[in-house]
Amino acid sequence: MELTISNLSKTYTNGRPLLGGPTESVQALKGVSLRIPRGMFGLLGPNGAGKSTLMRILATLQEPDSGNARLGELDVINQKEEVRKTLGYLPQEFGVYPKASAEELLDYFAIMKGIISRKARREVVESLLRQTNLWEVRRQKLGGYSGGMRQRFGVAVALLGNPRLLIVDEPTAGLDPAERVRFLNLLSELGENSVVILSTHIVEDVSELCTNMAIINKGEILLEAQPLRAVEALKGKIWRKLIQKQSLPQLEQEHQLISTKLLSGRTLVHVYSPEDPGQGFEAVAPDLEDVYFSTMGGFYGSGQRKQEQVL
Amino acid sequence: MRLWTIFRYEFGYQLRLPWPWLFGVVLIILSFLMTRDGSLSEVLYADFFLNSPFAVVKTTVFGSLIWLMMAAAIAGDAAARDRATGMHPLSYTTPVGRGAYLGGRFLAALLLNALLLLAVQLGILLGVYLPGVDAALIGPFRPAAFLSAYAIISLPNAVAATAIQFALASGSGRAMAGYFGSFLLVFMGFFVASVLLYGQGLGTLADPIGIRIIVEDIAHLWTTAEKNWRLLQLEGMLLQNRLFWLGIGGIALAGTYLSFRFAHPREGGWGWRKGKKQALAPHSQNPERNALSIPQVPRHFGLALQARQTLLIARTSFNALAFSWGEFALLGMLPLMTLPVLLDQMESRGVPLVPTTINIIYELTGSLSDELSRWVIVPFLIVYFAGELVWREREARMGEIAHSMPGSDWAPLLGKFLGLALMLLLFLCLQSGAGMLAQTLLGYREYEPSLYLKIMLGIQFLDYLLFALLALVLHVVVDQKYIGHLVAVIAFVFIAMASLFGIEHNLLIWGASSGWSYTDMRGFGPSLEPWFWFKGYWLAWALLLAVGAKLLWVRGRKNSLLLRLRQAPGRFRGATAYAGMVAAGAVLLLGGWIFYTTNVRNEYLTTSEKKARQAAYEQRYGRFAASAQPRLSAARLQVAIYPDERRAEIRGTYRLLNSSPEPIDSIHVATAGAVETRALAFDRPASQLLADEQLHYRIYRLETPLQPGDSLQLHFQLLKKANGFSESGIDPSLAANGTYFTNSWLPAIGYQSGRELLNAPDRRAHGLPPRPIIASLYDEKARERRGGGIAFEAVVSTSAEQVAVAPGALLGSWTKGGRRFFHYRTDAPLGGEWAFFSARYAVQEALWTNPDRSGQTITIRLYHQPGRTAQLERMLESIHASLTYYTRHFGPYPYSFLTFVERPGRGTGMHADASMITYAEGFSLWQPMGDEETPDVPFAVVAHELAHQWTVPYAPVEGAPVMSESLAWYYAMKVVETAKGEAHFRRFLSWMHQPYRKEIRRGEPLLRGLDPYMSYRRGPFALYALSEYIGEAQVNRALRRLLEKYQAPAAPLATTLDLYAGLQAETPDSLQYLLHDLFEVNTHWELKVEQATASPTPEGNWQVRLEVQARKLVFDSAGVEREVPMMDWVDLALFASQKGGAAQAPLYRQKHRIHTGRQTLTLSLPEQPARAGLDPYNLLIDPKREDNVQPVVPEQAQAPAAAKRLSQQKKE
């Protein structure tokens, strides 16, 4: 079973419809097509790229203007109710009832997801709380949970009912490094039988977890690839150099600059170049970050799709 | 200036939001409508300018009330936005002081609110000056009227309410808490001030909105003239009230300032210690990475899940509300406050009412359409709760998770509705509990749980449910919390004041029905059948709306109404479509059936159509008003009542006598609209000239004119039977038990001026000439006698187990064909009103024998509900005392019988017709405790009604109520004095002196008195004072002569001028001034004992020195006050002890001449007096009676002792 997205488009109209104020539209998705197989899929993109819109459409919470998405036999846009039966969704931002305990609220959602039998529910709730490491704090009020605990609780809710489609929207934003590791560990253990979409703007999330990925920017898919292969494909094309900050503008004109980084007061630049650019650049083994920035910079991915179909 | 920056930013920010503008528009529209429509001024029954200061103030008050209910978001948002949006870490860490931060926000909210309230004035101005208003209704433009209303009512309201809303929102960090502030204020105004503190005199002070001051006090206190010109002044009680509420506002602000901290808000309320302790996750670093294994468990979808989800959401919704302030208000505060309210309300004018279950329930229930009911706060809370529930997930930012769950949208919609319903159910159970507790505390044990169940958990619950569903649906459809709130409040305003919008039919007003009624005697009578139809119709609508809400239910985000509407058709399938179709079908079917029965089978007229008919009646037939008609001189009736079928058949014969000097050739018959007149025939050849079935006017032409002194007979046959039900329900006159109707169903002769349009603006609107409410006192034409006594005979039949009653002596009763027949006939002519009754009555019979040894006897029959006997003995006692006193002083009682009949109804009043006195059930439940303190008011009421049997035939001119009610009350006072003794009489007098509306009614003098204060209080007081000044015998003689003179058939009708002349003849010259002051002008006195001292004399006597102060004032008819010189005889009395009040026999009582100003009186007494009083019996009207009596201080004792004595007196 896989998730096939074809030609999804969504435009927001901003303004005050009630008072008839001026309106402007933002195209959040421009004909997005993707094929998402079983396993962990990373959707990588900067803030505002349209990730959350795509996630919400897949989570049945928003209507696209056009296009469709199919989960196996199911039409995600028109068979929402069927999709919801098999959906787990962890939104980018969510709250909890601060006065409820994790156990209560998870139990509540278990019923909502159709686990009606009390015994089955108890079993599932206990299992999920244990595996998200919340068992010992299950009786405490959710209002007192830290960000990471809350996030893990969210995963527990999303996992209720063994979803075949799990959508996790920017789950690691705002977590401390230890929590982040713990959280990613949890995600990595998700069954192999589901489609898991992880949307993030953090490259490491994808490189550490995902077998497939896509890069999205300004509502368009720039790259659809397997991380390892994408990195492989860039081998020998990424060069780096430590420069003074003031020489950056000149460098930018002469080379296909993909990223800059501060390193002990100087600037470390990565450029894309199929052959050695000379001038003191040294070859560097590319990583997924280079893939991301090359793609964002337009040197790789959709622009060159025809030549380098990486699948 | 940081404050200025914050203020400017906040003000600008809110101005960019939609709702301040919406609030403004709504306020303009509603105040426009209130100005245009006089429906709120019905209580005021007067005709004043649209832009008179009073009208402006009144609309301002109601505008403030609506503003209060809907606009709390402004202060709430200003106070809580930072915390609600999570922006507080940014704003709290700026270098701004608390004062500037809070002050800027508060002032911005205040300014916005103040500007919003200007919209009310704007609405009024538009209402007055936009086209469409009769120019005669508009007075000169006075800016001061608008400015003073705004400055005195609106501005202080804005300050106090904004401060309280701001304080609560700031304290809780939730903008919606502002609405709790509004709730508290409405609660104060409608519940605490109007009900609880009313008796204590604090009500006016505690009313935050001005409802009590304007609508209840000033509306009754000011004369029409005053309402037109007098400006609201900031003085007296109003000033105190405004200062009090400004003070409360100030306290709220100070509290906010002092408790506010720029700190992270602690976690929720009381449990914060527990909450603060962060849950620590155990850092179990288990290295083995085992794949997540989630147990595979069976899942269920479909109906089972939906039911389970619905119940789950219902439970959590209920719990969520159960721990909110709103729940505390609804389930805690209201039932708690209900108890004292019930205890307080179980009395009528100071005399306890037996707390039967229905009496309690009437206090506990209120129709949604009663905007002045104290239960207006319940719908207000429902709106709030509905908003909280609809927004619950999304406010906790859990919307996206919750919305991605499987299951249909029915589950959350129904679940939330059930949660709300559960809470309302609990509320009504608690209210019923409070009711039973009140009954227990009052010593009443006959709880009727089934009645609580039927009315509280049936009727009232359904009313609340219908409104709750509407509120829920509106919140779903609008999908913006504040605007949803606004729309729901508007919906409530629409329901409560639908007539403002020109909508009257119950089929068009959400949840409306023709109402229900219940009395112990009649039960629900015929009121339930139409109620069920209407509620069924509205339930069908409710289902339809629920389907609509389901279709427009918000799932996900960024779903504009437009988008949801576009998607709705696609969602209309399956069970939803089925439910929608069933609901629409039921709406059409039930609505169609109701429309058929109310508008086709029965006639339905809107208010304006009714007025148009009244106008047409006068325009078409008014010209016959003066044409000579025969008068009714005898009526013979056969009335067959079928209680179970709610049917009555009446056959009758009138004898019509030409008592005019000229022959009459045509007879005008006014038939009744309420019945079907089947046949109408004369005993001589006549032809029908006109039969206007719409206006119920018929003219018959006699072939041979009726000569003066000659008479003819009119035979008629009537049928009264409910034909389905009409828009207003079924006439309850015919009931399975407790049938009661009058001769208003029978044909009347001649043009009926009583059917004319009365209200002056209505008359103007229909082009009718002005018609005074009543003819001038000096109108000689009105004194002409029309009609005379009627010889009456009736055979009334009813079902076998009931007793039928009609006026007259019971000549016989028999049973035939399973029905009982009763034959009544009068032995002396009767007046023009007769009533008929049928119920399962028990009869108490008694015989009164005239003690004057004339041998006259009167058969007294008391028809009462079986079992309700507690009042009978008192009634008989009063009847005997009254008959004895009245026959001795005022002349003989003309009949050999006297009938008292109980009829269904809650009132405690009685109604007197010739030889027959009727009373509603309430009277038999109106029972003084029999202690030493409370006077026996029901005894006096019986005496008063009996006194009406001696009423002087009076003309329908100004002063008519004085002729009828004042005289009858004076008679009753005398009976109480004679029968119950001096001490009891004094207690009764102080009961009479209790505030009756307001003490001093400015305006017309007694001779032209019309209003209840004049006729029921001022008049009898004047007669009683006179009897104390010139003697009881003199006053009684004048009254007896008056009666004798005007009882004669040939005499004209009497007016107050004849009464006045009669009293003048009995009054010595030295007291003519008093008569003038009491009757001819509107006088009051201000009398006061300033200081009273006594010292022993060597002879063993006591020398008493009194410092007294006196003033005399006269009001003209517009209410302008003027002081007049005084040199009047005033009672001066000294009493031996502090205790005993006016009931104690005085040591000394003498009338002294008292002049204007301060004066010293010295007296010598054999005993030491303890109290001194100037006019201690309140014979003269004095607005401040309590300073008439003061303790007497021994001469040598100085000020401290006097103070001590005073304080002792207070303790007593």
UniProtKB/TrEMBL annotation, chain A:
GO terms for molecular function: ATP binding; ATP hydrolysis activity. CDD domains: ABC_drug_resistance_like (cd03264). Keywords: ATP-binding, Nucleotide-binding, Transport. SMART domains: AAA. It comes from the Bacteria. The keyword Transport applies. Pfam families: ABC_tran. InterPro entries: AAA+_ATPase (IPR003593), ABC_transporter-like_ATP-bd (IPR003439), ABC_transporter-like_CS (IPR017871), P-loop_NTPase (IPR027417). SUPFAM superfamilies: P-loop containing nucleoside triphosphate hydrolases. Residues 3-243 form the ABC transporter domain. PANTHER family: ABC TRANSPORTER, ATP-BINDING PROTEIN (PTHR43335:SF2). Belongs to the ABC transporter superfamily. This is Putative ABC transporter ATP-binding protein YbhF. The lineage of its organism: Bacteria, Pseudomonadati, Bacteroidota, Cytophagia, Cytophagales. The gene is ybhF_3.
From TrEMBL, chain B:
Keywords: Membrane, Transmembrane, Transmembrane helix. The chain crosses the membrane at residues 17-35, 55-75, 106-129, 149-169, 176-198, 243-263, 318-343, 372-392, 413-439, 451-474, 486-512, 532-554, 575-596. The keyword Nucleotide-binding does not apply. InterPro entries: Peptidase_M4/M1_CTD_sf (IPR027268). This is ABC-type transport system involved in multi-copper enzyme maturation, permease component. It comes from Cesiribacter andamanensis AMV16.
